[in-house]
Amino acid sequence: MKVEPDAIFVRDDPIWTSAGVSAGIDLSLAMVQDDCGHSVAMQVARQLIIYMKRPGGQSQFSELLQSQTTDSPAFDELHLWIAKNLHDQRLTVDMLATHVNMSPRNFARSYKTKTGRTPAKALELFRVEAARRLLEEAKLDVDQIARRCGFGDEERMRATFKRHLAISPRDYRRRFAILSSTNAMRQK
């Protein structure tokens, strides 16, 4: 027997195993997808209000969830505000500091201490996550998504995706978009 320490779930036909309760939901969605297809599994995931994009060997990443630290919720409200205002390209460390009534220098130092990353890096990761979701689910073109997520243009979003995900936004959409999966299912 081989243990996969980092896997969310493992399929070794005919046995499926998961790492825990949350991973059991991922396992269940994988089984629904295996039996009924990607489209049905996505519908179930939406009904459960959970993500479907957690392949068995890859852990899920959510910047918003990552930023909601249990030991220091000091910036939770700020993170929600950032998520609602990502479209604003003018979001800066100074603007974030003003939002939490701190000086920019104190804010940057405090934020890094409590979250483990700089405010600028966190903002960039929030934008990447929002763009990933839109690429998967929305019919908007890539340039519209770039503007909506505050990148400004497609080229800036492409460079950021390459740096963080090692894939372009267009390739990411081809690989993970619900729309392309649904179209592929229709063609069968």
Q: What is the helix/strand order?
A: EEHHHHHHHHHHH
Our count of helices gives 11
Unreliable stretches covering 5 or more consecutive residues = 51-61, 180-188
State the separation between the terminal residues, measured CA to CA: 37 Å
Instruction: Kindly name the structural category.
Output: mainly alpha
Mean pLDDT: 79
Helix content: 55-70%
Strand order of the largest sheet: 1-2
Largest sheet: 2 strands, antiparallel
Percent strand: under 5%
**Silhouette:** globular
Radius of gyration: 19 Å
Number of strands: 2
Characterize this entry briefly:
This protein has helices spanning about 20-35, 40-50, 65, 75-85, 95-100, 105-115, 120-135, 140-150, 155-165, 170-175, 180-185; strands at about 10, 15-20. The protein is mostly helical and about 190 residues long. It has a two-stranded antiparallel sheet with strand order 1-2.
